[in-house]
Design goal:
- It contains 14 helices and 18 strands.
- With 449 residues, it is an alpha/beta fold.
- The protein has 4 domains: 146 residues, Alpha-D-Glucose-1,6-Bisphosphate, subunit A, domain 3 (Alpha-D-Glucose-1,6-Bisphosphate, Chain A, domain 3, 3-Layer(aba) Sandwich), CATH 3.40.120; 82 residues, Alpha-D-Glucose-1,6-Bisphosphate, Chain A, domain 3, CATH 3.40.120.10; 112 residues, Alpha-D-Glucose-1,6-Bisphosphate, subunit A, domain 3 (Alpha-D-Glucose-1,6-Bisphosphate, Chain A, domain 3); 77 residues, Alpha-D-phosphohexomutase, C-terminal domain (TATA-Binding Protein), CATH 3.30.310.
- The strands form 4 sheets. Strands 1-5-4-2-3-6 form a 6-stranded mixed sheet, with helices on both faces.
- Strand 7, helix 6 and strand 8 form a beta-alpha-beta unit.
- It starts with 9 loop residues before the first strand and ends with a helix.
């Protein structure tokens, strides 16, 4: 891919990096390419999360689509997996989500889905980039009568809500949970779905104001949720992120449950039911070593990919696997949806709890999580991929691996969306690996800035 698309669409600070002009060009290029391939006017379904910049980008993107004769159906606030679901079940050519997921409000992003509900391929994104980065706009002008239109249709949200209720195979009525909506795209739909299924829900952070999305809440900020769980009695807690494509959970004691643990519960249940295709689970290189141990113990093949749910999905589609995901809580259950869906993942865990009669704290005993420290080195975007070529950084990593003596590992990777190099160290001694992670971050920042 080129300069615009990262691992999860086009993302940046709204009105600075992700400008209205860029949104217009993205809409125009995508609609033009689809129109040429299709031979008729394309139709796009567009959803947003709750960021203040959503209207600015939505209007610009829609204008670009209309400028080449496309139709923009504006869905309103809707989780990313809802857009993916509607793209594959409605009479549209593509879906678009305006969101920066778990990032703070000043960021926003634009990602496209094809009419099968999958993120666009690298090749398609390259075609869009080529049009945008060309020296001049070589697209033809369209006559006044051929200009596209905009339609607002928020009824689609109800269709996705009804579908979510149908994804769960057994009754979960009577459970009591606490839900953190991250002041994001699921603030209305997630509590409603759970209540429709008979769950008693205490809903927090469900009053978005355009700025408070992910602010001290959501799947990456669970401190306040933990405090609430420890003060009351719940079966568990669920924390979604800003666009609800990922989740974290807390057990009844307030202990965090991450994506590796959630995948373990779902994979073992699918295996018991004969639904874990080829007895295989797909994860990324960021997953805890405990997942490897669990898989081997239970006769499950574990396949690992590069970091990013798009790479997990590519592996799943290539080999027909049913379940995959990331430690961050991005979990893809292809029986249910074509992308990570935090609500569906949460419903599956609640189903397993009800089916087995076990508490969440008991279900997670199937996997032992080794201590893991994840820190970010803030570097320039230009240099963030250059750490592999720095002799001092490489030498330090070799020395650290020798210190771990095979009882841990180091993983360094550039962020796909932010000016960061992510450092992960895993080992038996949390104090030791924390100290070493801080030192490595400091070295990377000194060498890469």
């Amino acid at each position: 891919m080129g300069n615009l698309f990262g691992t999860d669409g086009v993302r940046g600070i709204a009105n600075v990096e992700l400008t209205p002009e860029l949104a217009f060009k993205l809409g125009r290029a995508a609609a033009y390419i689809i129109r040429n391939n299709k031979g008729s006017k394309p139709v796009f379904a567009i959803g947003t999360d709750t960021r203040i910049s959503k209207d600015m980008l939505l209007c610009s993107l829609s204008a670009g689509i209309c400028s080449v004769g496309g139709k923009s159906i504006q869905l309103g606030v809707l989780p990313t997996p809802g857009v993916a679901y509607l793209a594959r079940t409605s009479d549209v050519d593509a879906g678009v989500m305006i969101s920066a997921s778990h990032n703070s409000f000043e960021y926003n992003g634009i990602k496209f889905f094809n009419n099968r509900g999958f993120k666009l391929s690298d090749e398609y994104e390259d075609m869009i980039e080529s049009h945008i980065l060309a020296d001049r706009d070589n697209m033809p002008d369209f006559a006044h009568s051929d200009i596209g239109t905009v339609e607002k249709n928020e009824d689609f949200t109800r269709s996705y809500e009804e579908y979510l209720c149908r994804t769960i195979e057994n009754d979960i009525a009577g459970m009591k949970i606490i839900l953190d909506c991250a002041n994001g795209a699921a603030s209305n739909i997630a509590p409603q779905v759970l209540r429709n299924l008979g769950v008693e829900v205490i809903s927090l952070f469900d009053s978005p104001d355009g700025i408070n999305i992910n602010m001290g809440c959501g799947s990456t900020n669970i401190d306040k949720l933990q405090q609430r769980v420890k003060g009351e009695t719940f079966d568990c807690a669920i924390a979604l992120d800003g666009d609800a494509d990922r989740l974290m959970m807390l057990d009844e004691k307030g202990k965090p449950i991450d994506g590796d643990q959630i995948m373990t519960m779902i994979a073992l249940q699918l295996k018991r039911e004969g639904r874990l295709v080829r007895n295989t689970l797909v994860a990324t290189v960021m997953s805890n070593m405990g997942l490897d141990i669990m898989a081997k113990k239970n006769g499950i093949d574990l396949v690992k990919t590069k970091v990013g749910d798009r790479y997990v999905l590519e592996e799943m589609l290539k080999n027909g696997y049913a379940l995959g995901g990331e430690q961050s809580g991005h979990i893809i259950f292809l029986e249910k949806n074509t992308t990570g869906d935090g609500i569906i993942s949460a419903l599956q865990v609640l189903r397993i709890m009800k089916l087995t009669g076990k508490k969440l704290s008991e279900l997670v005993n199937d996997i032992e999580i080794l201590p893991q420290v994840l820190m970010n080195a803030r570097v320039s975007n230009i240099k963030k991929a250059a750490y592999n070529d720095d002799e001092i950084i490489c030498t330090h990593c070799i020395e650290l691996e020798n210190e771990l003596e095979g009882n841990g590992r180091i993983l360094i990777r550039p962020s796909g969306t932010e000016p960061l190099v992510r450092v992960m160290i895993e080992g038996r001694d949390i104090g030791f690996i924390t100290e070493r992670a801080k030192k490595l971050v400091r070295i990377i920042e000194e060498r890469m800035n």
